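Thought: the user wants the 3D structure for the chain below. I'll pass the sequence to the structure tool as-is, report back what it returns, then summarize two notable features.
Action: structure_tool
Action Input:
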Amino acid sequence: MNKKEIRQKILKERSELSGEFTAAASYVINGKIMALPEYEKADIILGYYATRNEPDMSRLFHDAISRGKKVYLPRVIGKREMQFFRYLDQKDVAPGSFGIMEPVSDEAFPYEKYTGPDISENDKDVPILIIMPGVAFDHEGNRIGYGGGYYDRYLSMLGGVPGADTASSKGKVYKTVMTAYNMQRVDKIPAESTDIRPDMIITEE
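Observation:
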């Protein structure tokens, strides 16, 4: 199957998951990420607001904020770009692009501080954990999103990925975790050169 066919198949199957399953699986996925050393060390969490039966990350956000970590969620800016804005609690979101809840805060994540050849060693020591959704994945770590390429473009801008023209020469300043249910795994995803593999993929299993 091609990417479009895989996307359609998995989205349909995921939409049919019960609320009981998604709540229980989300709880487990949250716990697994919170147990990661990368989460423990992170000062900044770039997350997402769950939609279309995605794993719900609200438990992790509450824990992160209680520990003094800064949490940011994405907002679509223009046609093909997204930026991350500060999230503190449920009252900080409202329906945005594509009907997805987006942060209403004006406090944007200062991504410019972590990109470019002039990035300082001190800034590199500020761990950023990016928790990203996805539609499907395979055993090689390839990921399919919703087809807009928002995360591929954003991570390329942050640098540290093939083809990036920003911070790649100094190494990336973040780790990426894709959340998914085990039923989203497929045998093979036709990967392209512009696709970015997450560092980790965490499911309920």
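Final Answer: Structure generated. The helical segments are 3-15, 19-34, 37-41, 58-66, 121-124, 150-158. The first strand starts at residue 44 and ends at 46.
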